[in-house]
Design brief:
Elements (H helix, E strand, L loop, with lengths): L9 H22 L3 E5 L2 E5 L9 E3 L8 H15 L4 E4 L8 H7 L3 E12 L13 E5 L3 H15 L3 H14 L7 E8 L2 E11 L2 E9 L8 H15 L4 E5 L2 H10 L2 E10 L1
Length: 268
């Protein structure tokens, strides 16, 4: 695992995000019972999950003269696995026009995720939690089941995604020092929100922030994010990162996060 990133710089965070993508992919693939293929110019991962984000490529560093051949070889490899898959691209991917090359080979952009970062100690975390909200750490099967239910409702997951997430969450365990620590929000005793912190690449990644529809706009999502941030900071992490939608961007900007990178997933 990478050492903890001590100081904030956009270049340093981008490199740490790339390390986190590799470390995280390896962990998530193992938790899914899959296989990882480390190669000098890319990392490929394969599971039996029929979901495009559960199989694919990260950390592409292709020789410009070999890029076309390697992309077709990779496509043939995944065709042989008979699973949907995605090709991940970031600002550090090479060659610099990798996205355009992928499009020429029949790929299309499936999703783009802005990546934001902040120094944890500069984030205001002293506000009052919404009345009636209790934030618990997920440490047993009962709490995990409630966490999974709230997460699926908050994100509107279909059954295949819900089953895939439940499988990997169970396999990951609930160790006190990570790498994946989860929190459940109870409002008047009912599970309504989730969050998590994923520790890899020297960064504390804030993940799984979701609130069920009927409990939104009460500050619950912010409270769940703060719980994950405090946990990362208590474990010695200095830089927090997260991916966001446009809906969540304003909230995170108010907390002190700013965009430093992005990830794009191409599928064919």
């Amino acid at each position: 695992m990478s050492g903890i990133l001590e100081r904030f710089s956009e270049e340093g965070v981008r490199e740490a995000l790339e390390a986190q993508a590799v470390e995280g992919t390896e962990l998530w693939t193992v938790w899914r019972g899959g296989r990882v293929y480390r190669e000098p110019d890319m990392l490929r991962y394969v599971t039996d999950e029929p979901l495009f984000f559960a199989n694919g490529v990260v950390r592409a560093r292709l020789d410009p003269e070999e890029a076309d051949r390697r992309i077709e070889e990779t496509a043939a490899f995944f065709d042989g696995q008979d699973v949907p898959w995605g090709f991940g691209v970031s600002p550090l991917s090479r060659p610099s026009d990798l996205a355009e090359i992928l499009v020429r080979h029949g790929f299309r952009l499936q999703e783009e995720l802005p990546r934001m970062a902040a120094e944890i100690e500069r984030i205001p975390m002293g506000g009052e939690a919404p009345e009636g909200l209790e934030v618990l750490r997920v440490e047993d099967d009962e709490a995990l089941g409630e966490w999974m239910d709230a997460l699926a409702r908050g994100f509107g997951m279909d059954d295949p995604r819900r089953r895939a997430m439940a499988r990997v969450a169970s396999a990951a365990g609930s160790e006190r020092d990570g790498p994946w620590i989860r929190f459940l929000g109870l409002l008047e005793g009912q599970p309504v929100a989730t969050s998590g912190v994923f520790l890899a690449g020297g960064l504390a990644a804030i993940v799984n922030v979701a609130t069920v529809l009927e409990a939104r706009r009460r500050g619950i999502g912010t409270a769940m994010t703060v719980a994950a941030l405090r946990c990362g900071f208590d474990l010695g992490y200095h830089i927090a990162v997260l991916g966001t939608t446009e809906m969540g961007r304003r909230i995170y900007e108010r907390m002190g996060f700013r965009e430093v990178s992005w990830t794009r997933l191409y599928v064919r």
